[in-house]
Write a structure and sequence with these properties.
Elements (H helix, E strand, L loop, with lengths): L13 H6 L5 E5 L6 H9 L17 E7 L2 E7 L10 H15 L2 E7 L6 H13 L3 E6 L4 H7 L10 E3 L8 H11 L16 E6 L6 H9 L17 E7 L2 E7 L12 H16 L2 E7 L6 H13 L2 E7 L6 H14 L8 E3 L11 H12 L5 H14 L12 E8 L4 E6 L5 H15 L7 E6 L7
Parallel strand pairs: 1-3, 1-4, 4-5, 5-6, 7-9, 7-10, 10-11, 11-12, 14-15
Antiparallel strand pairs: 2-3, 8-9, 13-14
Length: about 450
């Protein structure tokens, strides 16, 4: 057997996958703590799956784009599969079964150093019933001695076990060749097919605010593991959802619990992953618990979204629990804590029952429209001339900075460059932004103003 040491496939980008039509799906399953997430990181060629030496860290089924020998496929990382599980663990097992049902092939991971357990044999029965092609990975094979033990896994009756070290990459190339043989060929790309894919929406908010409940309601199935324990979702979960006749890509992110530097273990990676999900999104839906006061943590997440330059929709969840007194105090909190994002569309929903969830799409459309609004140079300078005439910049130290010219450099988010004769005050910048919104809309999006100061040349 030829060995591909340290095989690290290239990661296929999401846009590429969308452009090429549906890619085949590989579900990675196995009992808890056999190294599934480490193997997934090896397959996709980057550290994305949360890895920690505690069983059950991966709770939902998580999708990643992968590429091997020029063929793209989707890898679905599942929670540890214990057929005798109870409670939350039982629902993790149910998620793994759903993943197998949706997959084109299954990569079944077994710990070669432990050998066949009763749990492994129970999983084999479920895999046989599914009728899906199965590739057997004998993980943690770091040397020749363990490789000999791996061949004892022939007794599972799933064909040849592929010895692999997820940690070091040993044997992963041969295993991936077997995976490609088990996966169907992707369909040919249709002529003139649309490139770009669905709009990307990140669901963000502190733990236990209802992000997973909202995603499940939108998807119409038990998609994310929902438990009344803060921080049940550790990885972001991608879900393609049909809403109002269109497809949207939702990312349900891990609740941001602490500042990243204070978080530990998989919480640390979850915080990093949430920031990455925000960066990958076009619109962020910030969920706030309407029943509770807006916290410092909520404001911090809001700040992260603003700084990322993404469009924003604010959804007040659990509205069915809000009484008249709470509404009064909530209005005061909105005026105080959300003053910097008055431009963001706000909706009131109850994710658990689906009440007013249909208001999300109009709010998303409004935010995207604002985020992609472009103002022509002529219209912008006419507007700036009128603005300066009505309200000139105050004189500072005998000088009065003037706006000479303006242009919109980019959209998404709208970014303007102002050429000036001197530095504009921060308060005057805020005035310009407010007037821009009054004139051109820009609902749901931050506006970036950049100044280029042109100093007058002194005559010699």
């Amino acid at each position: 057997m030829t060995e591909h040491a340290d095989a690290t496939p290239e990661a296929g980008g999401p846009a590429g996958a969308d452009a090429a039509g549906p890619t085949p799906v590989l579900a990675v399953v196995g009992r808890p703590n056999v190294g599934k997430s480490t193997l997934v990181n090896r397959i996709i060629g980057r550290r994305e799956a949360v890895v920690q030496d505690i069983p059950g860290v991966t709770r939902d089924r998580i999708s990643y784009d992968a590429d091997w020998n020029g063929r793209a496929f989707t890898v679905v990382d599942t929670g540890g599969w214990d057929p005798d599980a109870r409670g939350l663990a039982e629902r993790i097992a149910a998620q793994a079964e759903i993943a197998v049902g949706l997959a084109d092939a299954v990569l079944f991971v077994v710990d070669a150093t432990v050998g066949i357990t009763d749990a492994d044999e129970a999983v084999v029965k479920i895999l046989r019933r599914s009728g899906k092609p199965v590739v057997l990975a004998a993980n943690k094979v770091d040397d020749q001695r363990t490789e000999a033990e791996a061949y004892g896994l022939w007794n599972l009756g799933l064909g040849e076990p592929w010895p692999v070290s997820a940690l070091h990459g040993r044997g992963s190339g041969d295993m991936l060749d077997a995976v490609l043989a088990a996966l169907p060929e992707p369909p040919p790309v249709a002529e003139g097919s649309e490139v770009g894919g669905p709009r990307r929406i990140a669901l963000v908010g502190k733990p236990n605010v209802g992000k997973s409940s909202l995603l499940n309601k939108l998807a119409g199935e038990e998609r994310s593991v929902v438990d009344n324990v803060a921080g049940t979702t550790v990885d972001p979960v991608d879900e393609l959802v049909e809403l109002a006749g269109r497809t949207w890509r939702f990312v349900d992110t891990a609740g941001i619990r602490k500042r990243v530097k204070e978080a530990s273990g998989h919480e640390y990676y979850a915080s990093l992953r949430t920031s990455a999900a925000i960066d990958r999104a076009e619109v962020c839906v910030l969920l706030l618990d309407a029943e509770q006061s807006i916290s410092e943590q909520d404001v911090r997440i809001l700040q992260t979204v603003r700084e990322s330059g993404r469009a924003l929709v604010i959804a007040f969840n659990k509205w069915d629990l809000v009484d008249e007194e709470r509404r009064y105090y909530l209005e005061r909190e909105i005026e105080r804590d959300l003053v910097q994002v008055q431009w963001a569309p706000r909706i009131n929903i109850t994710a658990r029952t689906g009440w007013h969830v249909d208001r999300l799409v109009p709010a998303l459309d409004k935010a995207i429209e604002g985020w992609e609004t472009r103002v022509g140079t002529g219209a912008l300078n006419t507007f700036l001339g009128r603005l300066v005439a009505e309200h000139p910049h105050p004189v500072r130290g005998g000088k009065q900075p003037k706006i000479l010219f303006g242009t919109q450099a980019t959209t998404a988010p709208p970014t303007f460059i102002l050429f000036t004769s001197g530095k504009l005050d921060d308060s005057y910048e805020r005035y310009i932004e407010r007037r821009l919104r009054e004139e051109f809309g820009f609902a749901g999006t931050p506006i970036i103003l950049q100044q280029r100061v042109r100093e007058k040349r002194k005559r010699s």
